[in-house]
Amino acid sequence: MTSKLLSPESTAPEFEQNPYGDRTPVVGSLWLLLFGGAICWTIHLLFVVAVSEWGCFSGMGEFRFLGATAIAWSVIVASLIAATVAGWVMFLSLRSNWRQCGSDSGSDGEDFDKERGSGCYLAQVAVWSNGLFLFIIVAQTIPILFYLSEC
Amino acid sequence: MSSDSSSEMRLQQTWAPARGFPGVLAEVNNQIIGKRFMITAFVFFMLGGVLALLMRIQLAASDNHFLGPQTYNELFTMHGSTMMFLFAVPFLEGLALYLLPMMIGARDVAFPRLTAYGYWLYLFGGVLFYASFLFGAVPDIGWFGYTPLSTSRFTGLSTDFWLLGLSLVEVAGLTAAIEIVVTILKFRAPGMTIGRLPLFILSLLVVGVMILIAFTVLLTATVLLELDRATNTAFFDVERGGNNLLWQHLFWFFGHPEVYIMFLPATGIISMVIPVFARRPVVGYVLIAAAILVTGFVSFGLWVHHMFAAGLPALSMTFFTAASLMIAIASGVQVFAWIATLWGSRPELKPPFLFALGFMFLFVLGGLTGVMVAVVPFDQQVHDTYFIVAHFHYVLIGGVLFPIFSGVYYWLPKMTGRLFSDSLGRLNFWLTFIGFNLTFFPMHIMGFLGMPRRVYTYPRHLELDGYNLLSTFGAGLMSIGAVVFLYDLVRGLTRGEAASDNPWDGDSLEWSVSSPPPNFGFIRFPVVTGRHPLWQADVTEAPDDSALGRLREALAFEPQTWRGTMVTDATDATPQAIQYLASPTFVPMWAAVGTLAAAVGVLAQAYILSAAGLAVLIISVFIWLLPRESVMRRLRESELPASTGLPVLSSGSVATGWWGMVGFLTLLGSSFAALIYSYFYIRLFSPQWPPSGSDLPNLPLGSAAYACLVVAGVIHCWGMSRFRAAAESSARAALVIGSAVAVGFLALQGWDWSRQNFTHQSHAYGSLYFVISGTLSLLVVLGLAFSLTCLKRIGRTDRRDLANVTLHLEMTQMLWATISVIGVLVFLTLYATPYLL
């Protein structure tokens, strides 16, 4: 953490100045990255539920292509898009993890719980949470394989 | 030294509780309000427990008539509602409000008056809820209040007691959530970066955001139901196009996250207790943090698993099965981390640790049955049987009550300054643990044997007497455990040995202050150097020569004549400002009395009382929010900016008010999301939209009205940019023009209302149209109030208050930007989609 020494003679500062240090760079984007997988999952769930509820009610399930209903195709396409985006976010998290924590940020032993600053911490949490959300998106897509031709 | 003691005395005077009975009503300090929350919640817990015992006595034998069916319905409704709304969440909120500032190195929470307002609302809501017994109108609709049973066609005053009492409690929960989130983000001691949060605090941060979303949806749903009952709208009236399943969706969108709102802080407690007893840092801190985050998010995607028997499309249910199975992974991560932390350690079997162990065992069992009921075919077999009762009690008592007991035994020495009996604590644990398993484990079997829940008795030929008698015996043992706890509490408070500051050799900051702690917590702000500050460095050590060290000394015993604490950056906890905190005041209590009067007016259909209550509320909030000259003068004259380099008035993301506004806007967004969801859900199942006989919305008129709203928002934002550029006259002009345009919206919207050939009572479409546009119009009135008060302050306040005026304008700008966005969404929903869908 950088910190400029506050001299005893200093007077009231301007609002923009902070004598006790600056914010860690890139933290803003890491916060966004932290929620990337969650946002993908939320949009995916809302979409597939809306399509299945509305589609089954409105007769969308009667339109078929290659043996699967339009609902099933919508869910499959949405899932592919969501999984791709979540995977990309996961990749970005891994890259941030490598940059923020250094190449020695192993995932085993005491080294894993070693503190390396806010940027590294956010990147590490992002890797695990985005990975889990990617897994959840994939798991939520599996049921459609059993409902390709019905509601 | 003598200078230090006189400084400490002045600090103590500034933070001393207000005296006498009036002082009790005016108190705003977090420690006192936190304790009030916990004590009140515990009283409700005992009441809920007595109701449970009465039910168990009724069920102890077949064909029993100790209670009649109506009384039984009332008791299970009151028991469930009490435990969910009046005990678990408020108790954890109280614990959080009490501990939070001490655990992060602050002197109080971010908005002390809001804490007090929340407490009064909670107390009034709970009392209103139980007042139903006095009027012979006890709610009997279950803690879930399903429609149509809860509509005015089937129930009377009792449901109004339930809805209005719980609405007050929900608002109290929302205030606590804003308090918790902003305090965690802005009041952390220097060095307590986002990666060094104690896990209890991290779980509270996630839960605070969850409450803001989930409780708002429930509040919106309860308002819609009360509107149906009191003003004959048609949201849940199928004959007029409403939909009963809408209530279930809204309720469970709250109801399932509610489980995790209770469970996550409970896991946070366990993550504090286990490392201290294992004498080592928790294993997998980052993984636990990720698990808490994922659990918080995914808990919002599971609500439909409570509706598997409601007739939804099978495909849609499978998505929720998958999500419900997946959340077990996130929960399991925490359990494995605790096991790994304990692995090879030699913990002492003291009461906090015993309850933590009990939690792990019971929660895993409850989690496993949770995975079972997440599977649709299994759920449909055991739906509405005692298997479900067993499952959720394992989750809620095992997963929440045991951690609460663990936390209470852990932190009681800190709160009271007394040590409590280990042997009585162990006795309580074994009575509760054995009693719990005797009560609830047989219910799994009873469920498989087909015993339905919510039925007041059962016939002898089902051969369930033995299991039920065992359950009742277990409930008795649990009650004895509660009595032992009470006895230990009284004994400890009156005769317990004095506790040291850190009797468990804990690692977190609260253990560095005296037991019991002074109301201001810390004389010198701690500087945190790791995730386990007390194990890593002496946070009370003499200051070094760095800037932080000098700041720490400059702020020792300061500020002395007003209550204040340090504000730090949300991520890195770098010092940014000194925050003024309110002293005791009656305003929050009056605001709560006004809110109560408004609710009672609706209950008694005495709408004059409601109007008077609202007037008291609005006046109180006005007094509350406008800065007082005496306070501003004190802040202007403060020497702290010169001695510390930190401002005492701030704006933007430095200011707590800015974050409070973000919380309020989150709440608004969540509420409108629920309303818009309701619109589309009802529309989905309506054969004709708008219903026959009703015209399509007037697109040109609607476009003009909502264009006004967007323009008003843009002008307000432009006004803010002019103010930042020091062009005050332009900023004033922007506020005037923006407000005038917003009034134009109200006029056009009013015109559109007047020309409709239907009312809010005609059909669900009418109810949605009037309630959504009406709510938006109320929001515009709130925006106008903000604009007009800004107008009054610009150019007329002391230049030294510039940061405060800037903050006021920023909040106004944020509100108008949100109103504009919501306006666009409402326009698309109400005016555009009827032409498209």
Structural class of chain B: mainly alpha
Helical region count of chain B?
26
Task: Please give the domain count of chain A.
Answer: 1
Over all CA atoms, what is the radius of gyration of chain A?
23 Å
Looking at the structure, the CATH topology of the domain at 652-836 in chain B is Four Helix Bundle (Hemerythrin (Met), subunit A)
Strand order of the largest sheet of chain B: 1-2
Q: How much of the sequence of chain A is in beta strands?
A: under 5%
Radius of gyration of chain B, Cα only, in angstroms? 27 Å
> Average pLDDT value of chain A?
77
The percent range for helix content of chain B is 55-70%
Oligomer: heterodimer
- CATH class of the domain at 652-836 in chain B, named Mainly Alpha
In CATH terms, the superfamily of the domain at 652-836 in chain B is Cytochrome c oxidase, subunit III, four-helix bundle
Strand order of the largest sheet of chain A: 1-2
- Secondary-structure content class of chain A: mainly alpha
SSE topology string of chain B: HHHHHHHHHHHHHHHHHEEHHHHHHHHH
Helix content of chain A: 55-70%
What are the low-pLDDT stretches of chain B, counting only 5+ consecutive residues below 50? Answer: none
- In this structure, how is the largest beta sheet of chain B organized? 2 strands, antiparallel
Mean pLDDT of chain B: 94
